[in-house]
Description:
- By secondary structure, the chain is mainly alpha-helical.
- The chain contains 20 helices and no strands.
- α5 runs antiparallel to α6 and α14 packs antiparallel against α15.
- About 5% of the residues have low confidence.
Amino acid sequence: MKIVFLLIIIFSSISISANDKNLYQKAYEIESISTLFAIPLYEQSLSSSNSKNLQKAAVSRLFYLYKKHNKLIEALLLGSKYSKIIPSKERSSVWSAIAEIYRPVKYDLLSSAYVLAVRTNHENYPELLNFMKSAYEPKLNDFIFVVLYKRKQFETLQLLLKEDRSISTSPLYAGMIAIKLDSDGGKSFLESLDAETDRDVSFHSDLFYLLGQYYRSLGDHRFSARYFRMSGSFNWNERAKLESAKSLVLSGNFSEACSTFDFKPSPNEEVGQTFYLICNKKDKSMLKEIKPSFKVLGSKEGGDFFQKVNQALEKWDL
Length: 318
């Protein structure tokens, strides 16, 4: 394979710190076991390495894996940041997939929205807000919200939604941001929604989902699990199952999460696949091999669940 020869050239022709080299090699080894769980290690390798050649190799692998696992916004952002590394043909293939998802929004409109979204912050957000108002396309707004969320522009999202609630047809984005930035603000937002009783099942599913997120932010994981399960009785049952199971794990009840729910393979999503490997497949050998990925995921913002996974693996002598 060309990639193998590339690795040989990189590691034999340049001086790379042992830690950087080991991290990349570990990611490459795990990729042969689980392409999904190789991603966190490649991400860490990219962010921590000072070697341009190693960064180039990590970017190439990440872009390929993002596409493989349908992480299209991550691939889009990576391709924009490293446009000299990722060929334009490869970036175009991501845009084609995104345009298909957000039909009937035209490609030109999506592209213009993306250009604005990647440069918008809490100081210059009015330009993006005016663009969203003039376009008046709910699916386009969803695309913008996801790009901003992936960029961790939470304050910007809050400002956009505060200025004009009509740009979102669901309470989900505004609620998630309110809870993430300020639990008191999240509580006030949820109280305002609770009065809106005459709504469809998706609205009620989102409301109970947000209540689950709110109680999780307070550390009340048992109550959180209860609300997540209630959200699934209205809609989005798979989402409710995963979040309820996560809350049970966070409350220290991994065995209860496994006995309560049945988990199918979830090849594009780390939490669901983790539950499948631990609760259903029970493949201790594989879990031991991908343990470095769990550690990286546990060190990230919001990595509490994977910290609990690591603790469970330690308890099981893995």
